[in-house]
Amino acid sequence: MSDLDGFRDEVRSWLDANAPRSLRGAPGTELDGSWGGRKATYPDPDRKRWLDACAERGFTAPEWPRAYGGGGLARDEAKVLRQELAKLKLPPPLIGFGLTMIGPVLLQFGSEEQKREHLTRICRGEIRWCQGYSEPGAGSDLAGLQTRAVLEGDHYVINGQKIWTSYADQADWMFCLVRSDPSAKKQEGITFILFDMETPGVTVKPIKLISGSSPFCETFLTNVRVPAKNVVGKVHGGWTVAKALLAHERTMIADAFGAAQGSGGRRKSFADWARESVGFEANRLADAALRERIAQNEMDTRAFLLTTQRARDAAKAGHAPGPESSMFKIYGTELNQRRMELLISIAGPQALGWEGAGFDERELDLTRQWLRSRGNSIEGGTSEVQLNIIAKRVLGLPD
Ligand SMILES: Cc1cc2nc3c(=O)[nH]c(=O)nc-3n(C[C@H](O)[C@H](O)[C@H](O)COP(=O)(O)OP(=O)(O)OC[C@H]3O[C@@H](n4cnc5c(N)ncnc54)[C@H](O)[C@@H]3O)c2cc1C
After folding, report:
1. 378 ligand 1 Cβ < 6 A
2. Residue 265 class from Cβ within 10 Å (0-12 exposed, 13-18 middle, 19+ buried)?
3. Which atom from ligand 1 is nearest to the alpha carbon of 136?
4. What pLDDT digit, counting tens, does each position of 117-135 carry?
5. pTM of model > 0.90
6. For residue 177, how far is its CA from the centre of ligand 1 (angstroms)?
């Protein structure tokens, strides 16, 4: 028996003993794990039990070092764990920007003190993070950001405004880009800094969206005093850290919207939806055009899943994603948008409801998910911006 087979047996018996039965095979997607944080509530106690058991075993961040609360697993062991979780159709114990964005960046750029302060709390789901990048005048042109940080003694005093801050009202800490040197070239005067959202001077206002449920907030920063030790990487060197984080973010978005929807996942398949809405004739879906679109989407999803898996396997251990993450981000988000359009076609007029007795909960949810998916090609950097990155940094084309 290989070491990996032994590890698989170990994982299976651990899951058998620790994965709550109520969560196995539960309907949903890979996106509905717990977000954690100080404000988290767990109406289903099994969710909390599952989170705590995984955190204890290092399975919320399987590949992070044990010293910081991770599982210390090698890449092929983490793959075995993912396979076994998928077999039981378990929700991820924990999701969020801590695990997918700031955690990997702290592992790469953080001081030992920062790693010890933040990583374990992320792994245990104790702290929820938000991203303070975009400003009213700085989205695609992120390096044009204007939020100012001025050093006073051993603190930075921050003033400015962030916008589109997803879940700022739920978050406990923000990772934030600030302008620390207004006289330098724009990319060279930026610092990457962390602060607690309870720091005096931080005000969060939710923004309403077309999909009804809105993750968005505006975040106002007025004389927010942040210890200088909370700078990640070099002072004025935040652009390097910011770009590394964006590569992690784009990889996460691609995984979430593309690969995570592979047929082995927990979502309901197109065929299931179509069987209910369109019906069967001669033992196959009654609508030939729909059959073709479903088959195409399934093939695209599987091909994308294999491609991202291959890229992950080929990457050297400890390799941080680079500009190639832009390719996966574009494809994954477009795939998700095509998928949502297809589901809307399958459900027909039932997918166009907003409220009322004529629609069931699942149909109302589908309408909102479809509207939400429009933002996929904007969040984490628009598709046009990804194409520019691919042209310049992957293909090496001239400006
Ligand atoms: C669902 C969602 C969640 C988000 N969450 C967060 C968050 O948590 N934190 C955060 O900081 N931000 C967040 N954002 C903001 C997001 O990063 C910005 O919306 C995005 O970077 C685009 O910036 P903008 O909205 O200012 O558009 P603009 O930059 O004004 O762009 C407008 C249009 O012009 C195009 N364009 C701009 N520049 C170029 C160019 N050089 N070449 C070609 N086309 C160009 C764009 O592609 C776009 O179509 C989120 C956005 C969404 C939709």
Report:
1. yes
2. middle
3. 26
4. 999 999 999 999 999 999 9
5. yes
6. 15
